[in-house]
């Protein structure tokens, strides 16, 4: 199972091809559109989120609301494309230096300079258009189908924001995924605690007033994952490692942890490892979940808890210093976008990247060309796990 995306931030569309989902999975455009709407929301977003309301077109692999087993093709149109046709068009031009909005000034914290050196671009728009977080809309579309696939076998996913620039939500997690969803969807910053929400909004407002930006920490919670997804036998089959890679691949993410995470460095083993218990009819479980649902690269059956650290958006109204690649003269970096906090949106993206990696692990373990085969295989595995 795999996916591929193509398209630029100001190009005509994002194009997605997904291969490997079994036949018979119910997928409706409305479900994808709702998740795309969630990605565009959140306190601290800029004007572009108001210009465009992302919607998906299903152009292959889904017929009458169900997957056929063929590759799935999706398109997310850029409704602002008409204003960028001259700048971003594919047709040859006589004088590349005459193109408007050429970029020769790399922005600190972006891919501009590294990509320009790597690919030999003198106009760094060829880098920044693809490296833009706009591409995460495609990942959310893919992750939505992964979520539907997982839900069909009893795996549910939710996300929240736990910190924005020092303002923290220390609320304990509700046991129900549905409660987490209800509370975070009612919050402009996707946190659980109303007091924490006000503190987070305050630091976002203060940063905006100062021409600055803020980052934070997001958390994805997965309930219902069966025991034994992933494997201990090779480094590249450990599921927590795969999830860590997927989370780190999200634009601006610079750290990942599971369960108690980096706090474990300051704790003795007796306060880290999860004691095992057994109950008739329920099988094995852990008394605590400090390891975040993983041992040896495999799921334990406990909820998966994974957090990602997002750095502050590097484009500021209080611009940082850089050097023009043409003149080599110093300058103050230009502004390409206006968000000063995208942490709530990043929480949504994180949910969907975790969902994708879990879907891969489910497909690897249980196979199946039809959804009923997958559902039956997972059901049998759960029964065997309880009886073990």
From TrEMBL:
It holds the Pfam family Chorismate_synt. One of its GO terms (biological process) is chorismate biosynthetic process. FMN binds at residues 130-132, 251-252, 296, 311-315, 337. Reduced FMN (FMNH(2)). It catalyses: 5-O-(1-carboxyvinyl)-3-phosphoshikimate = chorismate + phosphate. NADP(+) binds at residues 39, 45. One of its GO terms (cellular component) is cytosol. Keywords: Amino-acid biosynthesis, Aromatic amino acid biosynthesis, FAD, Flavoprotein, FMN, Lyase, NADP. Gene3D superfamilies: Chorismate synthase AroC. The keyword Manganese does not apply. Its cofactor is FMNH2. GO terms for molecular function: chorismate synthase activity; FMN binding. Its EC number is 4.2.3.5. It is an enzyme of class 4 (lyase). Pathway: Metabolic intermediate biosynthesis; chorismate biosynthesis; chorismate from D-erythrose 4-phosphate and phosphoenolpyruvate: step 7/7. PROSITE patterns: CHORISMATE_SYNTHASE_1 (PS00787), CHORISMATE_SYNTHASE_2 (PS00788). This reaction introduces a second double bond into the aromatic ring system. Homotetramer. Belongs to the chorismate synthase family. This is Chorismate synthase. It comes from Pullulanibacillus pueri. The gene is aroC1.
